[in-house]
Amino acid sequence: MLRHLSVVENVVVRVAAEDLTITGEHIRAGDGIIVSLPAGNRDTALLPDRPDVLDLTHNARAHLAFGFGVHQCLGQNLARMELQVAIPALLRRLPTLDLAVPFEEVHFRQQMSVYGVTRLLVTW
Q1: Under DSSP, is residue 38 helix (H, G, I), strand (E, B) or coil?
Q2: What is the pLDDT of residue 10?
Q3: Which of 2, 6, 50, 115 could form a disulfide with 37 if both were Cys (CB 3.0 to 4.6 A apart)?
Q4: What is the pLDDT of residue 29?
Q5: Residue in 54, 53, 19, 51 with CA at minimum distance from that of residue 33
Q6: How buried is 65 (Cβ within 10 angstroms: 0-12 exposed, 13-18 middle, 19+ buried)?
């Protein structure tokens, strides 16, 4: 799920420390770089056959949802715990939990750098 829906889209901004080439593009030392986490999470080198398909059975340990290296998200352990413990517990306690409106009426935030919905109406 984290690979498929990156919470943060394009806020990874860096400055090249040295000259380098990425996919044939030359970047000079000092150039600014904006990294797209969703594009990295759909890299065909990681998932050559179906990079845009949500497959919950795929063991997708290689994702950039929480950044990488020294720039990893401080909240990543809480987010993992929510995905592994809190959401399954919620679904066990409220097995009939469902959207109160058709999915097409769920509005996603467009004007912010963090992915999510503006509000989520549910019923149970």
Answers
A1: helix
A2: 67
A3: 6
A4: 96
A5: 19
A6: buried
H or E segment at 91? helix 87-93
Residue 47 CB coordination number (10 Å): 17
User: Whose CA is closest to 2, among 87, 101, 109?
Assistant: 87
CA angle 115, 120, 122 (to 5 degrees): 145
Other beta carbons within 10 angstroms of residue 115's beta carbon come to: 14
What is the average pLDDT score of the chain? Answer: 85
Residue 79 burial (C-beta neighbours within 10 Å; 0-12, 13-18, 19+): middle
Cα distances (Å, whole numbers) of residue 76 to 12, 44, 64, 122: 16, 25, 11, 26
Residues 82-110, mean pLDDT to the nearest whole number: 92
Token readout for 122 is 């549910």
